[in-house]
Amino acid sequence: MSDRISPPLTGGERETLRAYLDFHRATLAMKCEGVSEEDMRRRSSPPSELTLLGLVRHMAEVERTWFRRVIDGRDLPLVWSDSGDYQQAFDLEGATVSEAVSTWQREVAHSREIEQAAESLDVTGYFPRWGSDVSLRLVMLHLIHEYARHNGHADFLREAIDGTTGP
Q1: pLDDT of 5
Q2: S-S: 88 plus which of 27, 81, 119, 167, CB 3.0-4.6 Å?
């Protein structure tokens, strides 16, 4: 699930952004490897209600929103909410790890296709929440930021589950 390759030390802007985004995607996958269904659902850092499963579901929403809905301009609902409530991803009632991981992986695959098909990082899409066009460059940077932030959460959650620490 998580062949994590270090980003290049030299390289072009797009190659570097792509590599860092894939590095962070692989990091989230690593944090979830070997974790039982029960522990993926576990709120292991009280009083926080975050779970590894909730983070995977949330990142599927993030991938879909920024690449398919914003950059590709597709009129798609959120994955887990018909009403547009991003917090629904953290509601684990009826959720399974296999469904969440496969959905996340599908959204990542769509994101990669959209990014690779874009003629440049200057391609834009409209983000209604901000009422503005945003560039693919900003989207990739935003996702790197989003993954980095949530991978920090995943570090704490995983350590509290079974003591696993590391990169």
Answers
A1: 79
A2: 81
In Å, how far are 2, 26, 61, 119, 140 from 100, measured between CA atoms? 16, 15, 10, 31, 22
Q: Which residues contact 83 (CB under 8 A, 6 or more apart)?
A: none
Structure confidence by residue, pLDDT tens digits, 44-53: 888 889 999 9
pLDDT digits (tens, 9 = 90+) for 107-153: 999 999 999 999 999 999 999 989 999 999 999 999 999 999 999 99
- Euclidean distance between CA atoms 3 and 80, whole angstroms: 27
Which CB contacts under 8 angstroms, 24+ apart, belong to 104-107?
Answer: 104/56, 104/57, 104/59, 104/60, 104/63, 106/60, 107/60, 107/63, 107/64, 107/67, 107/68, 107/79
Instruction: Return the closest-CA partner of residue 22 out of 38, 40, 7.
Output: 7
Question: 150 Cβ partners below 8 Å, 6+ apart?
Answer: 28, 55, 58, 59
